[in-house]
């Protein structure tokens, strides 16, 4: 696998007052019913999906680069039967606002996550992040370790700061060029999805990518490879799991971070939550149920 392909695979899909605008709840509404709202984050509104029932600790899901909260649809439906489950659109993704100051630092995106859980009144929870969101998950643990019951990286980025700088510079030069637009970005996603993706997965990934900003894409990728997670990861000493695609041995993945246990799922693409949601749910169920 070339450096460029490996970097893209890991980054792309790899990569407290709320101004809540919730749908009115009918009296017959199920306890697990989903509530959509906007939470005010540091750089603008963040679209949030909240719901679930039960006394088990909540879980918060964070999507990867160029995606949206809906990528977790199957997991939200599964876990809301027993616990509160939340997902949100990261800044510039889905229905969330893009930062007016073009701040796409990983640390700033971790502050968005904190704004969401604070606005929802969630004090302690499990945190699950996919692809690029692995860096957001790491940054969050370094700043709010006491709020976490456990962390799960889903085929997620670990430490990309040690990659060959010349290779990174070449990729950044291409993606920051005025000639790099939506067509080129979607073409990169098309090559990344790979042959093991289900047709529904391929469509969902490419549809989301076609609506994403190439400028935000380039800026977030640049921030991601400059973020060093090592001190943040060391601050949280709780349980950590990386669920990765079987055969993905790229050294920048989260399973190479200290204290992270690794498990794999075979015959899936990078978007394993779409390709085999039941397998991922089972991994998460087991992790949440540990003593």
Please describe what this structure looks like:
- With 291 residues, the chain is of the alpha/beta class.
- The chain has helices spanning 3-11, 73-79, 106-119, 133-143, 165-175, 182-193, 199-210, 214-226, 230-235, 272-275, 277-289, and strands at 35-41, 44-52, 56-62, 83-88, 125-130, 148-154, 240-245, 261-265.
- Strand 5, helix 4 and strand 6 (148-154) form a beta-alpha-beta unit.
- Helix 3 crosses helix 4 (133-143).
- The longest helix is centred in the middle third of the chain and has 14 residues, at 106-119.
Number of domains: 1
Q: What is the N-to-C order of secondary-structure elements (H for helix, E for strand)?
A: HEEEHEHEHEHHHHHEEHH
Fill in the CATH topology.
Rossmann fold
Give the tally of β-strands.
8
What is the number of helical segments per DSSP (H or I, 4+ residues)?
A: 11
Instruction: Supply Rg.
Output: 18 Å
- If classified by CATH, what would the architecture be? 3-Layer(aba) Sandwich
Shape: globular
Distance between termini? 39 Å
Indicate the proportion of strand residues. Answer: 15-25%
Q: What low-confidence regions span 5 or more consecutive residues with pLDDT below 50?
A: 1-29
Helical percentage: 25-40%
Going across the biggest sheet, name each strand in turn.
Answer: 1-2-4-3-5-6-7-8
Oligomer: single chain
């Amino acid at each position: 696998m070339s450096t460029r392909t490996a970097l893209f695979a890991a980054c792309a899909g790899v990569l407290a007052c709320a101004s809540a605008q919730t749908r009115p709840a009918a009296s017959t509404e199920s306890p697990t019913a989903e509530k959509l709202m906007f939470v005010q984050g540091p750089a603008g509104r963040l679209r949030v999906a909240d719901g679930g029932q039960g006394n088990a600790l909540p879980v918060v899901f964070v999507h990867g680069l160029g995606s949206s909260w809906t990528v977790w649809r199957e997991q939200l439906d599964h876990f809301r039967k027993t616990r509160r489950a939340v997902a949100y659109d990261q800044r510039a993704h889905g229905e969330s606002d893009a930062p007016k100051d073009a701040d796409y630092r990983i640390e700033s995106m971790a502050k968005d996550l904190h704004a969401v859980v604070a606005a929802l009144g969630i004090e302690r929870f499990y945190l699950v992040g996919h692809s690029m969101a692995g860096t957001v998950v790491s940054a969050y643990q370094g700043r709010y370790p006491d709020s976490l019951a456990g962390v799960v990286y889903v085929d997620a980025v670990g430490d990309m700061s040690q990659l060959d700088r010349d290779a990174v510079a070449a990729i950044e030069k291409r993606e920051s060029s005025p000639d790099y637009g939506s067509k080129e970005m979607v073409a990169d996603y098309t090559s990344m999805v790979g042959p093991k993706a289900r047709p529904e997965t391929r469509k969902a990934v490419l549809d989301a990518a076609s609506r994403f900003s190439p400028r935000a894409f380039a800026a977030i990728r640049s921030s991601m490879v400059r973020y060093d997670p090592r001190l943040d990861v060391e601050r949280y000493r709780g349980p950590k799991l990386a669920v990765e695609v079987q055969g993905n041995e790229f050294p920048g993945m989260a399973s190479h971070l200290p204290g992270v246990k690794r498990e794999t799922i075979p015959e899936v693409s990078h978007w394993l939550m779409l390709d085999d949601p039941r397998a991922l749910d089972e991994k998460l169920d087991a992790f949440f149920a540990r003593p």
